[in-house]
Input
Amino acid sequence: MRRVRRRKSKRACAVKEDPSAVPSDSASASSTVGGVLNAYPTPSAAITSASAVSASADASPAASSSASSQAAEPSASSGAGSGGLSGLMSYVFPRGTGSAHWTTVTEQPETLSFDDALKPLAAGKLPSSGSAPDGSQALIANYPAGTVKLAAPGHGYSFYTEGQHNGVEVTGAKEVVFSYSVYFQEGFQFVKGGKLPGLYGGTSFDAAKSCSGGRQDGRDECFSARLMWRANGAGEIYNYLPTAAYDHGNYCSTPPFSKCDPAFGESIGRGAFTFPTGQWTTVAIRLKMNDANVANGEQELFVNGQSVISLTDLMISVNSETKIYGIMAQTFFGGSDSSWASSIDQSAYFKDWSIAVLA
Output
């Protein structure tokens, strides 16, 4: 059974989703999402999540889901299950630091630089670093006006890394959490949507790489678990799992809105939270691999320390050789055609990269 935990604050407002919106790389997203996600470092930051689904969405998968809704406030001393961590550290490690971890969060013991944490690269190129609008150091993604997809010169970035430092061996892990903070410049124009970093895996590196972009061959030999922003900043999990995952539980009907497209990927929990502009937002993706051919995997998304999407009984892998390979760090507008293109020259900033092995 899938459950999505929704957090409400006094400022929370409803999310209205267009049930006809399609999540694929080549499709349009025209949903309207209201509300703002308060950014760190305020420990009492609250999520503006989907408190209601539009009455017009009665025919959508979300309308038929029985997932429960609960309200909660984040603790100033720690995140849920964060092992007593406080403030930003409870956001990047919402389930604690596990048996091994590393982080680029500044002013922490053994903090790693971006180069040390994210290299050596398995593929791609590390983007340039520089000052974010608040003066902190971050990796910078630029999205020139009129550009779309990674093929566009100077648009976004893409790299793969195992991130194996400080005893973190992701390829031998059963369960990990991967985190980072993202800052969309003030007034960022989200257009139809774009991709954000996540995790990836497979039966080998060659099989695991590029589990995206409408890939059809070898879909049972790989997976990816990224995030997306959609129109007006609506956030979601964006997965490529084996299509066998579609047959288990309510994965493809996770509210507020979800759709599984075997030709492209899975848009899961769209509108469960909203990315703001001009603020930092910390996201943490927890992934627990399933046993071979058993639908007992788990995936959970935390935003500023709060669980906003929680999935159980997942079929992440159908092959006993599949393992987590590390970070699939990609960001770009798209979609595949010019209707997804960045409408102006704009930027996003990424920092606080972190990984913990939980099992």
Remarks:
- The longest strand covers residues 346-357.
- Residues 1-80 have pLDDT under 50 and may be disordered.
- DSSP finds three helices and 18 strands in the chain.
- The two ends are 22 Å apart (CA to CA).
